[in-house]
Predict the 3D structure of the following.
Amino acid sequence: MSFRLQESAFDPRQAAVDVTLPAGQGWTHELAAGDIFRIVDLEGNQAVDTLFFNSRDVDERYSATETIRAQGNIYLSTGTRLMSSEGRPLLTIVADTCGRHDTLGGACATESNMVRYAIEKRHMHACRQSFVKAITGWGRGLDKRDIGHNINFFMNVPVTPEGRLTFEDGLSAPGKYVEMRAEMDVLALVSNCPQLNNPCNAYNPTPIRVLIWD
């Protein structure tokens, strides 16, 4: 799979949903099949942790394994089909002005912050907390056990020749976006990452913008 930058023809002024999400906040929204979903990195180098579920059968959800296997590449970009645990496309990336996105690095958590950085980091807010708060508020019986392997939009996680993951400065910039088309009815679950301990957010978490066109 070759990565290519692709701009969108959709006009933000015509979006049915247009929300600015502060750093550290979670968000959920249901998308109907055919809806267009855009995430905008407003200030640059802001990681956006994201999960997707089939909103009609939440046991079917995003699978990093199936997505990587389907495209033969560990990075996500224009043309990537975001596959479900049942091997079906949940969404397709139809526009991308950043270039590539991660699906290996996982979501930050209080536990991993303590292990990676320092025991004193245990009280710092993390994406897993935002995911849990947002998904339990959705009211469909989902809880922390349903937080699986996620996508990190705009996050730069190179894999070394030895097979190690590294967290590096982002490839994104102010105004860069990624846009997806829902291939079925989908629940989008977003955590605008609050991480301060590595360069995924340039050590300065910032807001993002999410837009949906019916």
Q: What stands out?
A: Residues 127-138 form the longest helix (12 residues).
